[in-house]
């Protein structure tokens, strides 16, 4: 176990021990200071907790590595750039880290591609790009946007949708994934001393962008809650 893990493990024991010792000391000497009000004792205990929390804060917090954090302004700029390239059909210029899934369905036999969403999936928009050739290959790409929690990127924990093609029918299904995130914050005494807001967490929800490339003579018949946007139109 690392030194950080050891400190984190024993720190609660030290705090509890300090509280027990303080209470024991209070009862031991109360016969000498019967005139001291209970309020003073509570103030004394609070001051001890404040000192302990302040001293312990550097040991129970750690900086997140640079590649795990995303500045919000950079995130917004990335999102704008991603949608611009997708809507104009320039997917080859998109950073590969945003490509979550790529499907190639060869030997497509038909002039109409029927697309539907499986039960439990919300309405989605699909960018449709018609090729300048009839290669009988249907391509489907899923680009993912970032899931940020307190500027930390958890996108790798969000799986893309499942895409299946059976004959002329394509089905898009959600992949359920439970993600549990625990984030440690400074204690109330420390926040009170530093002036840090009590609730200062933020979350920017991740999503996915669906992109379809089809042969020039193929039409798309979209099912319920599906919205098509043809690139460069």
**Separation of the first and last Cα atoms:** 58 Å
Strand content: 25-35%
* Shape, per Cα inertia axes: elongated
Low-confidence runs: 1-8, 61-67
* Strand order, largest beta sheet: 1-4-10-3-12
How large is the count of helical segments?
Answer: 4
- Overall radius of gyration: 28 Å
In total, the number of domains comes to 2
Overall structural class, as computed from helix and strand content, comes to alpha/beta
Number of extended strands: 12
Main sheet record: 5 strands, mixed
Average pLDDT metric:
75
Succession of helices and strands: HHHEEEEEEEEHEEEE
Condensed summary:
The protein is an alpha/beta fold and about 230 residues long. The chain has helices spanning about 5-30, 40-60, 70-85, 190-195, and strands spanning about 100-105, 110-115, 125-130, 140-145, 150, 150-155, 160-165, 170-175, 205, 210-215, 220, 225-230.
Describe the structure.
The strands form three sheets. Strands 1-4-10-3-12 form a five-stranded mixed β-sheet, with helices on one face. A four-stranded mixed β-sheet has the order 7-8-2-11, with no helix packed on it. The chain contains four helices and twelve strands, in the order αααββββββββαββββ. It has helices spanning 3-29, 38-60, 72-87, 188-194; strands at residues 99-105, 112-117, 124-130, 138-144, 148-149, 152-153, 162-166, 169-173, 203-204, 208-214, 219-222, 226-230. Mean pLDDT is 75; it is low at 1-8 and 61-67. Helix 1 packs antiparallel against helix 2 (38-60). The protein is of the alpha/beta class and 233 residues long.
């Amino acid at each position: 176990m690392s030194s950080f893990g050891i400190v984190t493990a024993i720190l609660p024991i030290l705090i509890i021990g300090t509280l027990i010792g303080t209470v024991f000391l209070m009862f031991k000497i109360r016969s000498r200071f019967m005139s001291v009000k209970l309020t003073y004792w509570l103030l004394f205990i609070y001051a001890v907790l404040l000192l302990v929390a302040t001293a312990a804060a550097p040991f129970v917090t750690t900086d997140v590595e640079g590649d795990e954090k995303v500045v919000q302004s950079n995130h917004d700029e990335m999102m704008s750039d991603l949608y611009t390239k997708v809507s104009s059909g320039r997917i080859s210029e998109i950073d590969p880290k945003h490509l979550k899934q790529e499907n190639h369905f060869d030997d497509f036999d038909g002039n109409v591609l029927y697309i539907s969403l499986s039960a439990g999936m919300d309405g989605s928009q699909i960018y449709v790009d018609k090729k300048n050739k009839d290669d009988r290959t249907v391509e489907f790409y899923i680009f993912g946007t970032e899931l940020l929690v307190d500027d930390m990127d958890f996108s790798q924990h969000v799986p893309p949708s499942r895409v299946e093609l059976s004959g002329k029918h394509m089905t898009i299904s959600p992949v359920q994934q439970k993600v549990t995130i625990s984030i440690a914050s400074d204690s109330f005494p420390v926040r009170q001393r530093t002036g840090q807001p009590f609730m200062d967490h933020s979350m920017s929800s991740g999503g996915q962008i669906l992109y379809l490339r089809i042969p020039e003579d193929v039409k798309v018949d979209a099912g319920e809650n599906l919205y098509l946007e043809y690139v460069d139109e």
